[in-house]
TrEMBL record:
PANTHER family: HOMOSERINE KINASE, HOMOSERINE/4-DIPHOSPHOCYTIDYL-2-C-METHYL-D-ERYTHRITOL KINASE. It comes from Pachysolen tannophilus NRRL Y-2460. The keyword Ligase does not apply. Residues 270-329 form the GHMP kinase C-terminal domain. Residues 75-159 form the GHMP kinase N-terminal domain. The keyword Kinase applies. This is Homoserine kinase.
Amino acid sequence: MSSRRSFRISVPASSANIGPGFDVLGIGLSLYLTLDVSVDPKHSKDSDEDPNNCLISYEPSSQGFSHVPLRSDENLITRTALYVLRCNGIRSFPSGTKVHVNNPIPLGRGLGSSGAAVVSGVVLANEIGKLGFSKQRMLDYCLMIERHPDNITAAMMGGFVGSYLRELSAAEMERKEIPLSEVLPEPAGGADTGLVPPDAPMDIGRHIKYDWCKEIRCIAIIPDFEVSTAESRGVLPGAYTAKDLVFNLQRLAVLTTALTRSPPNPELIYPAMQDRIHQPYRKTLIPGLTEILASVTPKTHPGLLGICLSGAGPTILALATHNFDLIAEEIVARFSKEGITCSWKLLEPAYDGMTVTQT
Ligand SMILES: Nc1ncnc2c1ncn2[C@@H]1O[C@H](COP(=O)(O)OP(=O)(O)OP(=O)(O)O)[C@@H](O)[C@H]1O
Ligand SMILES: N[C@@H](CCO)C(=O)O
């Protein structure tokens, strides 16, 4: 009997922060990274070319097709998987592993491409290594790699979520890979020294899934340039005034419930999506940001509920109930005045998050 296996992993894009919820709020969005995975020992020759037995390919229409690395210890998806496998005593992929990636999520635009890649990598290891982890346990591994829980939790769990990292003990903090400021800078677990990387602590991330008012849809206006999350965090200050913190906390408290109520109230939501913690500082990286956020309002554009920077930018997220084209075209036109071209997409929340299907 053949021991061939094949399955598909699907992980949604996400938008983090939603204005005041910096590093806290996220929404899974209906744009999916998929991995078609097969393990067939009869095809071991193909995968033997990779040091860890994994032949990676990308659909030509994928974002990043021309430049994402295809070596398994360099590609973010497979190096994440290798890290999880090695934590669990498995050094490499089984002979004959093939991973075909289809990625419609633009890279470095604030739509959670790295979060989706990390989630898919952890799930890949869980399936390949038959590790039997729950989504909650897989989140721990994801959070060892990408530290802010907002995109990761939305991608894994789906829907509209609030999340935080639990306080780590002194012993846990000593481990040099926690907290990582950004995505793993080095290949998984470093070079393959044969050492087992330290395992992820339990229950690093805590979350709650909110309801979502079904009339609200998500417009993503995506400029044609990248801002890396590292760069976009680099412009933030190290400390904030109590006034600015209270400004965000007050809005956050109202926003999470306002987005669940039907009919949604633009007079409550629009001001509740304002922020003083990250957006004002990121305007230096995103020409036109301040003007766009201030001038496209429910009064100028009926149907609009609220507007914010998506994740670390440069994508703008507009929440609306109707008039999607007019809202998107206005923002596209405003970016155009800055010499920036954009595309836009009308998306729904991805309520289920990551899924695995046997194929
Ligand atoms: N499908 C993928 N395959 C391989 N590498 C990927 C993939 N998706 C993302 N990456 C890596 O992640 C990088 C983008 O991560 P970054 O955190 O800067 O932006 P983002 O996740 O798109 O935005 P944000 O975190 O603000 O939502 C890419 O440049 C690439 O190195
Ligand atoms: N909360 C994060 C999301 C990007 O990963 C940020 O805004 O930097």
